[in-house]
What does this fold into?
Amino acid sequence: MPEPVVVVDKVTKRFAGHTAVDALSLSVSPGIIYGLLGPNGAGKTTTLRMIMDIYEPDAGTVRLFGTVGGGRTHSARIGYLPEERGLYPRMRVLDVLVFLAEAKGVSRRAARAKAVEWLDRLGLADWRLRKVSDLSKGMQQKVQFISTILHDPELVILDEPFSGLDPVNSQVLRDTVVDYRRRGKTVLFSTHIMEHAEKLCDRLCIIARGKKLVDGTLTEMKQAHGGRHVIIAFDGSQGGAAQIFSDRRLVARIQDFGQEAELELAPGADPQDILKALVNSGARLARFELASPSLHKIFVDLVGPEAATAAAVPVPAGASAGA
Amino acid sequence: MRKVWAVIRREFVERVRTKWFWVSAILGPVLFAGIIVFQIVQSVGGAVRHIAVVDSTSTGFGERVAEALSAGRTFRATRVPAGPGVIDSLTRLVEAKQLDGFLIVTNELTETGKAEYRSSNISSLQAIEELQRGLGRLVVKVRLETKGVNPAVVDWAQIPIRLDTKKIARGRTTAESAGQSFIMAYIMAILLFMAILLYGVNVMSSVLEEKTTRIVEVLVSSLRPFQLMLGKVVGAGAVSFFQFLIWGVSARLLINLRGPIARMLGADPAAAQGLQLPHIPGATVAVFMAFFLGGFLLYSAMFAAVGAMSSNEQEARQAQQPVTYLLMISYFSIIGLTNDPSSTFSRTLSLVPFTSPIATPVRWTAGSMAMSELVASLAILAIAIVGVTWVAARIYRVGILMTGKRPSMKELVRWVRAA
It folds into this structure.
């Protein structure tokens, strides 16, 4: 077992009046994509800021690359993209990138060469001498992204990286993250969007109200929080579905998305009975699938519907693996 | 440290690249050139005035007036006998710029000392003074003559007085005049006030920019907040030194070029040589620089904290007011300081660290400060810089990541206390 890149050990952070992070522990092994999942206000940003040395924990320790101390000491090895990110609007694109790299301890010359290379790669070559404020929002996002990975860090920490990204940049980011893992680097990111977590992460940690609820691989979570699930998609008429779904002998719990639904089977219930009953009631089905629970389902079960609804976005059930 | 150096360089380069830097860099020399040209033009305007002396005396006294005035450097006077329409035609000549003015002399001049001068330009104090002095000497002479005093004796008795003022400073007598050292101290105080305020506010807006654009979070993940603040203050300070350098060098150049400028304006180049910059001793320059540096460090640390605790321009404008008022105290005391640099009031101001950056250089220039006082003033300022920077850095560290409403006094105290 290689030494973890990030170790957060019983870390607590209190702000005036409330505890943002409460004795949280997690550990990120090298070469994986690690997702920190939680509803808004769960303490994700505070946790990442403590890892980055922006906040000092009130209790507990943070270890990076096997040494005590947060991100600032290792800034040349870490790329950090905060949730609220910005650039100097009046500076030239190239100058901003060089400056941000210098602030991490990269030499000016090396930073310049890398910046030019990355701007070329992301199609911003013609913009390098323009002011940041002349760039479109999407282009600025690319520049922010370049500034995070310009110095080829071993560990990339991204706080809600997908929020506000247009679809094209979203894809660029996903590709880069995957490419990073392939090259043996480590990615730690926070999100409240299940789809990203489910598709990208090797390991996950779900937190709420500053506390860890569960961590592990997606498979582990699905096994632990299993139950047998059926995913149903209607094709027009739903027939007598509502009545069948409320039959507690067949269905223990339901997540109803309208045209789709995710059912947790009652103990001893046979999914074939549900299928038969639905067809007989006149429902037209586009999909009937035995599945393990989606991450969304696990998340809602753990966090509670009130906390989850604010943050969680319903995902198409197709995102989950087949049974 | 390389990271701090990067912050300093960014601050410097970005500021120097702005329009405003160059506007003010150019405005300084332009203003200075304006002063030189103004002085040369004045000296040209004061060259020779052609006037008429309208003589309505019964004794033909006007002829002697014209002679006496023409003997001086400023006037070329011609006697015109008074008569109907003379005043009108002379007025027309003045309007047509063929005559600079005319003097009306009556019997009253020798009796009550009253005369009248009409001219298109009565603002040249130098010319009016010479006119008055010339007439005065003549009238005294004539009046003594009527009492039987020998004119030769009168001429012998009247000698012009030239009063030379010299300053005694720190045990030495210098050639510097009282007026010069007053003006020097005054200009210095204004320069210090403007520079500290201007560049302090620059630090504030730079902090605010990083906060409002939210770039600050990336920065403090690589740099300690104190490094960031330090880099910012030093960078802005370097910009102001650069500005001073541009002003100083261009002033030097303009002084050296004043001969050619005078020739261009059609004036005697020799006349322009009279325009001398007062000689500034090296010690004064050193004191000025030291206290500018100290004042700048003290105030920009406070301005940095103000920027950090505000979330937009409007809030910052409000929050900076206490700091600006603190600086204003010394600004409003400049007159008092220059008038009586050794009063208890002045002594106090030069010891309090928030006023000493302006008060001490003024007192030093006015020459009323002992070395021991200077050392004490510097020492207190240095201690204050350390203390204020410590507090400001703590407010800064917490403030830059805060958004929302401005902190109350109580919250600020908690920020400072927070480990």
In short: The interface with chain B takes residues 16, 49, 52-54, 56, 71-72, 75, 78, 80-82, 84-91, 95, 99-100, 102-105, 108, 147 of chain A (CB under 8 Å). The longest strand of chain A covers residues 18-28.
